[in-house]
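Suppose you are handed a protein chain with no further information: no name, no annotation, nothing but its sequence. What can you learn? This example shows the usual starting point.
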Amino acid sequence: MSLQIIDELGFKEAAGHEVLGRVSIADLFPKSRNRCGIYLLQFSDGTYYIGQAVDAVRRFAQHRKNYDTIAHYWFQRVTKLQLDSVEQQLIRQAEQAGLLLTNKTFVTNVVGETDLDLLVSPAEQQTWVETGSELTNDGIDLSQAVEERAKVKYRQNFLQLEQHRHYPQLRSLLRAYIQRGLPAYKKTEQAFWALSCLPSTNKATYPRFCSLNVNGMEVLVAGVEKKSQEPFVFTIVSGSMFPTATEKHRFQKAYARVIAASDYRAAGVDQFVIHFRSLEALQTALEREPTLRKSIREMNLRLMRRGGTVYSPYHCFDLVADVVRG
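A reasonable first move is to predict its three-dimensional structure. Written in structure tokens, the prediction is:
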């Protein structure tokens, strides 16, 4: 089956090369040949990796320094301008066809051990996604453990947000989202998810109350349109949210302004961004729609399995303490 998929991806199974034990493929790509394109690696455990290279020989050597189990190699020439789009397309096509990929971006499932496994076992992760049952935090309270200097960094931002007329509704919404949408949210706080307070993004037009970030992307953003002073909120969910067009239409009619496909690199092959009509609309949907809760869990777990958040320096401990522990 894998050989058929390889052919369908355009790599042509018969044109591949056995490379187990090799440290260079310079003989396969003389300097007179075009070395720019997309490559497919097969590891000795039966997993695969799709990547792009301006220089195939140099890129293989880089991989080989980290992995000595590369068993097979395929390559197809692609122009430099098309590398990003073709790589993304082939990764999504390969995963949908059932190829077991070790890629960390553009894929739905992260294969192998992850940093998150050290805090929450894979079995616990799977149970949480399927049932939503709360995971133990083992009495952890990060705000009581971190140094005061880490907490005061965004304290003025929090005190300002706290005075906003929409803060009570925002606080209630954040509590519902964090408790229902983040696994072992106290254990994973700051390392795997971060909540910013009054970030400067789009400050001139759509200033934000907050942004909840997992791994390298924002999954929940709330703020206010500066011109109308009306709140806005959007969230990113997995594709399981809308199994049919009828369900999508029903949900949009009940809660949403806009539902659109999104294309974050880290979020996998199936993702939607939902712009809700109001803060209240999202909170109501969280309470009434189990499919929404599950799609949020799916999205956040897949992001956490990719690694910790790059937004930890912007984490507002005071906001989290008030929302979750208050």
